[in-house]
Amino acid sequence: MKYIILGALILLSSGIYAQQNIDDLLAAGVKDAERFSKDYLAPATEGLVYGINNGWFNHGKGQKQFGFEIGLIANTAFINSSKKSFEMRVSDYDNIRFPDNSASKMVATALGSNTPDITVILRYEDPIFGNQETEITLPTGLGSSDINVIPAAFLQVGFSPFRGTQLKARYFPKIEVDNVETGLYGFGLQQEFTAWLPKEELFPVAISGLIAYTHLDGNYDFTDQGVVNGQNQQVETQVNTMLYELIVSTKFKMLNVYGALGYISGKTETDLLGTYVVSDGFLFSESIVNPFSIEEKDSGMRTTLGLNLKLGFFAINADYTLAEFNSASLGLQFSF
Q1: pLDDT digits (tens, 9 = 90+) for 196-231
Q2: What is the C-alpha separation between 74 and 316, in angstroms, rounded?
Q3: Range of the domain at 88
Q4: Residues 8-67: tens digit of each pLDDT
Q5: What's the number of CA atoms in the CB half-sphere (13 Å) around residue 205?
Q6: Domain count, the chain
Q7: What is the rounded distance in angstroms from the CA atom of residue 322 to the CA atom of residue 336?
Q8: Is the dihedral of CA 9, 94, 298, 145 positive or negative?
Q9: Which pTM was predicted?
Q10: Residues in contact with 207: Cβ distance below 8 Å, sequence separation at least 6, in sequence order
Q11: CATH code of the domain covering residue 188
């Protein structure tokens, strides 16, 4: 989970943060810093929206009345090449240009890497010396560490108050690792429609509907790292998503095939908080408080195909999902 937050949500973090001149980037203006951050983070936050929504179902048939299920879900969302870079156009910025005066260049997102490094010229206003310029290296992303996936894992439970109806909940405890605190929870409802048929045993497949909500929040406090002078410096991120699925599966006793067609929508808010003292190192300094907040909304269709093997009260399932971010999931369940 640390890589999910560090790589996908935190601008210039996990080593990237310490290597770049964040004070120079802010010196070019909050507007320019926010614009770059939005494009840089967008594919990663989109990957999170898709990545945290897998594993909600493993079958189209509902549990028996008062049935209980507990499981562990592991998921990997794959990063395709189109999400690793974006076109940075100089016309979109007030105080940033490329050294060779190019109108635009493809640069790394939080999921990519710049090979070789790409630099930009930042222009800022010094109250004594007037217009000044400085050159910085643009941040790279997870691609520089050969990371091509966005992993996730959850503990999930289900309870059936009625035959064919299953209430679901998933949870990842809020923990702190290297000043990064993350947590996840979600709730869902799966209803088998074929359970309402008078002769359901004669129907060859089980058909269900699922609706689920997932929330992820993270906080990265880097005040003590001393990258930029200031106070209470941190990044806060919240991800809220809704998932809607139509699920169909076979109804054999041991091995079953299931498939689903779904729609996902999500909203991500990332805030750069705290006080930042931007300085040219000599006479000029400026304090910037809570520089910016970035909001992204993502939505799209997805298709899932999987297998479920049940051995008594134990079951294992694996599936693959085609979406904006393709993903694979593996689940282990115990049913009572």
Answers
A1: 888 767 778 999 999 999 999 888 887 776 556 778
A2: 12
A3: 2-335
A4: 433 333 333 333 445 557 767 888 988 998 898 889 889 889 989 999 999 998 888 899
A5: 13
A6: 1
A7: 32
A8: negative
A9: 0.86
A10: 60, 192, 193, 194, 246, 247, 248
A11: 2.40.128
